Please model this.
Amino acid sequence: MRELMNLNVDNLILQALREDITSEDITTNSVMPEYELGEVDLICKQDGVLAGLEIFKRVFELLDDETEFEMQAKDGDKVVNGQLIGKVRGDIRVLLEGERTALNYLQRMSGIATYTNSIAVLFEGSKTKLLDTRKTTPNMRVFEKYAVKVGGGYNHRFNLSDGILLKDNHIGAAGGVKEAVRMAQEYAPFVRKIEVECETLDMVKEAVEAGADIIMLDNMDKETMREAIRIIDGRAKTECSGNVTKENVANLIDIGVDYISSGALTHSAPIMDLSLKNLHPIN
Model:
């Protein structure tokens, strides 16, 4: 995680800090004009799964690399309302300036991990894997997809450079499923798998005949998906997609697809309530 931060996320965190502090923290500077060492508690205010502690810490480190942490939990841990997660120690001005940005990351990421975990437990004992999508908050994808993994889910492609997914508009632009697959096979490196989004059984048949590696069964009812799996007959991996939520996913697992993807993991997860409390000076 540390290497990931240094390579990819420090700049994103700095952008978030600049959004919150354009010139100075007027409130903090008015009540704390000089350095004073202090400590504050990180407290959980609801049950859930933690994700993003290293990002939380990094916010304060980027403001002052002498900030210290005493954590009593780690990412992936299940925590309960009222639990002390840890303590942050450092310049009181830094603790106040970084509080909101650090909590924004931790609350959002822990919320996603918690929601993902509540769905992932339903997949236990099945061959089907739970995937996220690209329906993420702009400039938050690296954080949100990490949180999905912490919660027990798996990542679909990370971005448009990461894999080939021929959706309805790509197919329309190419002139049909077979033509779209053929063009993708000619253009893409051989190491890239080709996935095709199919809305009908006729499209499924075309995708199989064209040699697609993965077939997405998009917004189909259960019986149509079962027939699609029979047609595919193991010649391609299968993915179920389309308005998958915690409320309906249990009805889809027994169909026997390899993957079920859900944009709700990232676009509909509520935040997890966490707070920094009891800030006090240390003599």
